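Incident review: delayed structure delivery

Summary: a single-chain prediction request sat in the queue longer than the usual turnaround. Root cause was a stuck worker, restarted by the on-call engineer. No data loss occurred. The affected request and its eventual output are reproduced below so the record is complete for anyone auditing the incident later.

Affected input:
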Amino acid sequence: IGIEASVAERIFDPFFTTKEPGEGTGMGLSVVHGIICDLGGEIFIDSAPGKGATFTVLLPIAESPPEEENSAQPPLPMGTEHILVVDDEEDILATSRMMLAHLGYTVSVNSSSSAALDEIKKGDVCYDLVLTDQTMPDLTGLELARELHRAAPELPVILCTGYSDKVNEESIRTVHAVGLLLKPVELRDLAVMVRKALDRKG
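Output delivered after worker restart:
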């Protein structure tokens, strides 16, 4: 219980993790930190070994900005469609669900790429878009996108990765994915790409 000071100093850094290789990406708290900063807030950690950990989030009071500020920063594109998020990291699933739900979408999650593929092949649930991680057991994101295109060619797929050298715009085109997001994903980048993919589908 509790977190060492040396760990607490880096806990919000992208890809920092104390887990064994293959057990964590180190992206969960980094994504949370990014969302809070996008909203103009701050997050702090107070912890010591044996005493647990407390996270404090400070967010600004919502006010109506001047009209000229509104025009400078367009509102986030939103929607109500059904999106499936596929990632083997539970913290990433939780964060992605929170971000997409904030944008108005109905969100389902699956921690297994092969199970997600089987579900879509069965056709019991109709999804409007799939947002998938790249590095997963069973099928990678690229492999999942390729199989989904074969099973449901009209279903748009967006890939997320923290390793841009392994996945790029050219590689996602070969599997018919419609977009690529680099982790840690910013809320506005996610909102814009998801809306663009859904509008293109329509």
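Verification: The radius of gyration is 18 Å.
Action items: add queue-age alerting; document worker restart procedure.
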